[in-house]
Specification:
Blueprint lengths: L1 H11 L5 H27 L3 H24 L2 H23 L7 H15 L2 H24 L10 H78 L4 H31 L8 E3 L1 H18 L3 E6 L4 E6 L1 H17 L5 E12 L2 E10 L21 H4 L8 H12 L2 E7 L3 E17 L5 H8 L8 E2 L4 E5 L3 H11 L5 E5 L2 H10 L4 E4 L8 H10 L9 E6 L4 H10 L3 E4 L4 H11 L6 E2 L3 H12 L6 E8 L6 H7 L2 E3 L2 E4 L2 E4 L6 H8 L7 E3 L3 H12 L2 E8 L6 H11 L5 E5 L4 H16 L4 H12 L2 E6 L4 H5 L5 H9 L2 E8 L2 E9 L2 H12 L6 E11 L3 H14 L4 E6 L2 H7 L3 E8 L1
Parallel strand pairs: 2-4, 9-10, 9-11, 11-12, 12-13, 15-16, 15-20, 20-21, 25-26
Antiparallel strand pairs: 1-3, 3-7, 4-5, 5-7, 6-7, 8-14, 17-18, 17-19, 22-23, 22-27, 23-24, 25-27
Helix pairs in contact: 2-3, 2-7, 3-4, 4-5, 4-6, 5-6, 5-7, 7-8, 8-12, 9-10, 9-13, 10-12, 14-18, 15-16, 18-19, 21-30, 22-23, 24-25, 28-29
Bound molecules: adenosine-5'-diphosphate.
Length: 892
């Protein structure tokens, strides 16, 4: 009884391994059943061999269970028991217990259940297969070789044996299912209990963190507050330095506590967003105010570029968005030693009242190694610790950023070149409350308005003559006061008519002109000054000074011929900057750092550039016509051409005609090479400054392995660069590029474009007919012998692109013209399958007469909307030689 109790306790003990308990339970129950079957067999006078095997099985159950409990050999025990059952116990019981006329058959059914529960994985499949095979064999032998069944089994014995077996096996199955169910329920209860405990723990951890953070914050506030007082006192340098260090450490600690609190909220899924209506311009201006100084202190340039078309009112968690941006901008400043940090904001698309705002932060700092990029967003993980060891940080920031973005339905991607710099791109969907565009938003200006107290005078120009025209007296007064320190000679008038009187006999260097004025508006007045007969200010620099901030305003004033444009309310610094930019340098005396004034002027000029959502790029060898490159603004990366005179960039530093002339001398060797990883990296980085995503289409990887491989390797550093193996070359590759541009223009996303291009690839026909194989032989692509033979037989082979590989297609004989005709015929036979919008005839070294001939043959055969005759790039020319041309088109 005691033993039974301790076994029961063991089986129900949740602290013990579930598999072991399950095994012991099943084996013990089965053991008892087998033992009872043995007793029954003895009473029925069954075969002694069967009785012995049942007895042995019944005793091995407890022994094996003991090994499982003590030694934890549960896997081995399962295999052993299954092995014994399948290969010994069941066959012996079958053959010695009357075969089909005994109870063994019913025990076989139970064995299926037992094996299914005690062995796992491959072994389970093995034993199940074995039992099926052995059972089939047993049945086969019973039918055909019944003499193998040992001993006579009377009808009475058969009934009794079967009855005992069915009752025992039935009970066994009932108990197995019941106990399995019991274990399952117990296990389930336990899991529930665990999750309750975890929740409880989370709750208490959270309340612990919030209590702790409150508790820690209070003393830190005291430390920072009192320390601030020390800093204000007249103290010794040493004390001041110590106090400054305390201040920095206190702030760092506060920051850390905030991060840990956020982290614990995010991890427990308790981060709630607080959505409010906000003006993105104001939000940005708060951030800029905070980070501008930090960048300046480190000697970094700080640029902000805000697109005009961002809605003026959005709905979302403004505070959290600020936190995300501050984190990324802080990192950019922290991990950049010299150069610049640029924040650019775009509205990628507006859909169903939602604007997808894309913030990208680019720095020229230390960059991130490709292999570290996947770990950037892991909490507490700081990458490249060797280099970063002296830079303060916890590795929490980006993990919080990522999780906050997940909660907001946004995303973050990274593009980085180690040692050169990084760009973090954040996209956040926000509800649009007011779709009026934000317009011209000079963040640098706004920021300076906030920091007016830090203004420093930059220059004086006492000889400069400046006129301000504004119908509002107080506006005139503001400009006068703001420009007072520059000592310029300032006249102010309150109407266009008065302005014209002044300009008739004064040559002003700069005129600030209001737009909306009664009677004569600023645009009209500007025109009249420019055309005033005898007027001395016809060539003056005229700046529109207006309250119109819409995106169209800048375009309007530029079109009208104004030299500049300032939005009211305007700061003294903005006025000064504009004056400095427009005044003749010989009448200006610089007081500050001249470089700085000029540099800031330049950053004003670059505002509001709209980044493309997707840029499609390719290689020089895609052989695209100039008008298509310009129409879609396609950037191409040149391959390299090695000659004995040096290395040249394909299509830029070397052109096909010259190269062919150079190759006329058979001793002149020419080799070509695809760009390497670094060239690709630099190319992608440049493209990403004008686009949020890059889809780069490369030459078939089966033609030149290294090109596609290096492009893909370089793309690992950029989350926003996708490389596509075109599977073609020359204008065949070009056709895929054109299709990609068309899809991007239609507004498809990158994954959509990629999947479409996969289908289009298969529809492109790329083939060439070559005059001779001489050039292919020179680049070792075919043997000299074959080339010679072809020439002797006046054979002109075609090269056809199939599954990304270039192979020799049909061969045409006879005159050049005849071969051409047959080649063109063979391409355009089934004209129904050809997409008639565009045909490329890409050639190497053909004369105008040749081209006309080819055009005529094509036009007789099919009519295309456009036929582009393209001189192939030097790289293609080197490999095919003059007299080559190909028809490249899209099949329907
Ligand atoms: P930390 O507190 O260490 O800055 P973050 O989670 O903000 O933690 O960043 C994780 C790691 O990512 C940093 O330790 C740093 O190695 C790297 N990192 C983040 N931003 C940049 C960047 N702009 N340039 C280079 N490395 C960066």
């Amino acid at each position: 009884m005691k033993l039974f109790k301790s076994i029961k306790n063991y089986i129900l003990d949740p602290a013990k391994d579930f598999k072991e308990r399950n095994f012991v339970l099943l084996t013990m129950v089965a053991g008892i059943a087998v033992f009872l079957a043995m007793i029954a067999d003895i009473l029925l006078g069954e075969n002694i061999v069967e009785i012995i095997i049942l007895g042995a099985t019944a005793t091995s159950g407890p022994i094996v269970s003991w090994l499982v409990i003590k030694k934890h050999w549960v896997r081995q025990a399962g295999i052993f028991m299954a092995f014994m059952t399948v290969f010994f116990v069941l066959p012996i019981a079958f053959f010695f217990g009357g075969g089909l006329y005994g109870g063994a058959v019913i025990w076989i059914a139970f064995a299926f259940l037992y094996i299914g529960l005690i062995v796992e994985g491959g072994w389970r499949r093995f034993f199940l297969l074995a039992i099926v095979v052995i059972t089939s064999v047993e049945f086969y032998l019973t039918f055909y070789k019944s003499y193998l069944i040992i001993g006579p089994h009377t009808k009475r014995m058969m009934f009794m044996d079967t009855l005992v077996a069915i009752i025992l096996v039935g009970l066994l199955i009932y108990m197995t299912v019941m106990t399995q169910n019991m274990l399952f329920i117990a296990q389930n209860e336990q899991a529930k209990e665990y999750s309750k405990q975890v929740e409880e723990l989370n709750r208490s951890q959270n309340s612990f963190f919030s209590n702790m953070s409150h508790e820690i914050r209070t003393p830190i506030n005291t430390i920072i507050g009192l320390n601030e007082m020390i800093l204000r006192e007249e103290v010794s340098d040493e004390v001041a330095e110590d106090a400054a260090n305390i201040q920095a450490a206190g702030k760092m600690l506060l920051h850390l506590i905030n991060d840990i609190l956020d982290m614990s909220k995010l991890e427990s899924g308790q981060m709630q967003l607080t959505n409010v209506a906000y003006n993105p311009g104001n939000m940005l201006s708060d951030i800029v105010g905070m980070l501008w100084l930090r960048a300046k202190d480190k000697g970094l340039e700080f640029h902000i570029d805000v697109a005009h078309d961002i809605p003026s009112e959005l709905y979302g968690d403004e505070i959290r968005i600020k936190q995300i941006l501050i984190n990324i901008l802080n990192n950019a400043i922290k991990y950049t030693g010299q150069g610049s940090v640029t924040l650019s904001i775009q509205c990628e698309k507006k859909e169903d009242g939602i604007a997808y705002i894309v913030y990208s932060v680019t720095d020229t700092g230390m960059g991130i190694k490709k292999e570290d990029i996947p770990y950037l967003f892991t909490a507490f993980k700081r990458v490249d610790e060797g280099t970063n060891r002296h830079i303060e940080g916890t590795g929490l920031g980006l993990s919080i950023v990522k999780q906050l973005l997940d909660v907001m339905g946004g995303s973050i991607t990274v593009n980085s070149i180690y040692t050169k710099g990084s760009t973090f791109v954040v996209s956040i969907p926000q509800k649009i409350l007011n779709d009026k565009e934000i317009g011209e938003l000079d963040m640098e200006e706004r920021h300076k308005l906030n920091r007016r107290e830090e203004y420093k005078k930059r220059f004086e120009a006492p000889d400069a003559k400046v006129l301000v025209v504004d119908d509002n007296g107080s506006n005139l007064l503001v400009v006068q006061k703001l420009l007072r320190d520059t000592k310029v000679q300032l006249d102010s008038v309150s109407s266009g008519a008065e302005a014209l009187k002044k300009t008739l006999d004064t040559e002003y260097h700069v005129i600030f002109m209001d737009h909306l004025m009664p009677e004569m508006d600023g645009i009209e007045c500007h025109k009249r000054i420019r055309t005033q007969t005898g007027g001395l200010s016809r060539n003056s620099k005229i700046v529109a000074l207006t309250a119109n901030a819409g995106p169209e305003s800048r375009i309007l004033y530029e079109k009208e011929g104004f030299n500049g444009y300032l939005v009211k309310p305007v700061s003294g610094e903005a006025l000064e900057r504009e004056l400095y930019r427009l005044l003749p340098k010989d009448i200006v005396m610089s007081l500050g750092d001249e470089e700085e004034v000029i540099e800031e002027t330049m950053s004003w000029m670059g505002l509001g550039n709209k980044k493309k959502s997707i840029a499609i790029t390719s290689e020089s060898i895609a052989d695209l016509p100039r008008e298509i490159i310009e129409r879609y603004d396609i950037a191409t990366l040149p391959h390299r051409v090695y000659t004995e005179n040096g290395v040249f960039k394909d299509g830029i530093e070397i052109e096909t005609k010259g190269l062919l002339a150079y190759m006329e001398n058979k001793d002149n060797k020419v080799e070509t090479e695809a760009p390497g990883v670094e060239e690709h990296e630099a190319f992608f980085a440049k493209q990403l400054s004008g686009a949020n995503n890059v889809v780069h289409i490369v030459l078939s990887s089966k033609v030149t392995k290294s090109g596609c491989r290096d492009a893909m390797e370089a793309a690992r550093a950029f989350d926003n660069v996708t490389v596509i193996d075109s599977g073609h070359l020359s204008s065949g590759q070009g056709l895929l590029v054109i299709e990609a541009c068309r899809l991007a223009e239609e507004g498809l996303t990158v994954p959509e474009i990629v999947s479409e291009l996969e289908k289009i690839k298969r529809k492109i026909h790329t083939s060439f007919i070559v005059d001779s194989l001489e050039f292919l032989a020179r680049s070792n692509q075919v043997s000299d012998k074959i080339s010679g033979l072809m020439k002797a037989f006046m054979a002109r082979p075609t090269l056809v692109m199939k599954n990304g590989k270039m192979g020799v297609g049909r061969i045409f004989f006879g005159t050049r013209e005849n071969a051409w005709k047959h080649y063109i015929d063979s391409c355009l036979t089934d004209s129904d399958i050809t997409d008639k919008r565009m045909l490329f005839v890409t050639y190497v070294g053909l004369t105008k007469r040749d081209i006309d001939k080819i055009r005529k043959i094509i036009e007789e055969k099919a009519s295309f909307e456009v036929i582009h005759f393209m001189q192939a790039s030097p790289v293609i020319a080197v490999n095919c030689g003059p007299g080559t041309f190909g028809l490249l088109y899209l099949k329907k």
